[in-house]
Amino acid sequence: MKTIAVISTTGGAGRTTLAATLAVLLARRGRDVVAIDFDPQNMLGAWLGLDALAPHGIAHALTGASHAWHAHTWRNDDGVLFVPHGQVTLDEAAACDTQLAAQPQWLENAIAEIALPESGVVVIDTPRYPSRQAQQAARAADLVLCVCPPDPAACAAFVAHLPALREACGDVRVVVNRLNPAREMQRDVLAMLRAAAGGLPVAQRIHMEAALPEAFARGAWVIDEAPHTQASHDLHGLAQHVDARLPEIEASIAA
């Protein structure tokens, strides 16, 4: 079993969208997939097919309101086993942060309870980094995918936090999301990102796609409704990159 943390250092980067799509595409490739929503926004379930935000989830196990976080799981039509975050008040969110600060390995220990085969994958959606949740996810992960839009502020924030991310996880790769190559500024920003990140591997570039929010509104996947678009091709490319990377991670751990 391998763990992938999907992280971003800016809001609105498309992290949750990519986490959900990656989980589904890996499941369609025959892997057993568990998707954990570790973001207090509690939105991952909306992408995976829930009609309403899940009221209970892993946050309530963290605060002690529920003893078994895995009692709140749900499986979507593609076979992804989903662990919601759950709705929390401001006081409950503060209590979660307190517990995470006191137990730095809490998420890692929770993931260890999941009974997946060796080929299984855990995909974690997180709030914006730095946060307690994102930091624990990075520490628990075998692979961190950092989602970064091609704009100067987002790239500057990513580069500033990259050393800490690399300290938390030895395998960090960037996913450039919402790319519009017709904009010259974005090409300049990508060049700046490559130089500042010192050769950090780029897992995939995902092009901007207008059909994506329309598909979400209909409860569908853009990879199904608009399979011939560049974005759909890119998303499949990301899943292929991750799928191919997992055996390499396993081999490096064994060595």
TrEMBL record:
InterPro entries listed in its UniProt record: Cellulose_synthase_operon_BcsQ (IPR017746), DNA_Partitioning_ATPase (IPR050678), P-loop_NTPase (IPR027417)
Superkingdom, natural source: Bacteria
SUPFAM superfamilies: P-loop containing nucleoside triphosphate hydrolases (SSF52540)
NCBIfam families for the chain: cellulose_yhjQ
Name of the protein this chain belongs to: Cellulose biosynthesis protein
Annotated source species: Caballeronia grimmiae
